[in-house]
Amino acid sequence: MVHAGCWAHVRRYFFQAVQLNSKDLLALGIVTEIDKLFELEAEAKAVGLGAAERLGLRREKAEPIVEGLKQRIESARAITLPRSALGKACDYALGRWGPLSRFLEYGQLELSNNLAENAIRPIAIGRKNWLHVGSERAGPRVAAIISIVESCRRLNMRVRNYLASVLPGLADFPINRIGELTRLPGPLEPDYPASKSAVAANFRLSFFR
Prior knowledge:
The chain is built from nine helices and no strands. By secondary structure, the protein is mainly alpha-helical. The protein folds into two domains: about 100 residues, no CATH class; about 90 residues, no CATH class.
């Protein structure tokens, strides 16, 4: 598991500082630099870059922006009141700098956790309907099941195909090879029954983080 930070949350805090004081050039400059990271990601997606190519692009163009951002935020924090909107934004970002920089190490990671938040929104909206989970142990199990479902959706897979290919032999599958049971995104698979061996042959190492 890789702990990654969300740049959308960081941007939100600095943007709130700008909203409170539109003449705050420090906060505005930081927001502008963060926007450059998102623009770079949008360009990578527009041309269909894979994880390895996107990682190379990030190291070439995003890493200098991130380094400059850290300097800007540290400088702003040094001259800002701790309880001000800008001060709180700086503390939030600097306190999570390791996870925020993680996308420079893994091309699979997104710049924000918007995908994850969108995936769990139906659960959050209907939270009262989930009170019947029954015990503390049931909660993590439900979370694991939902993670599988949403991962399949993101990877353009049919959940039924995935479970039919994986569950029958899961009890005897080596734990150190569990990553082989995930796959790369691809065309939507036909409904089961397809050959289980054919479906399983499409699986590749690709973690949903």
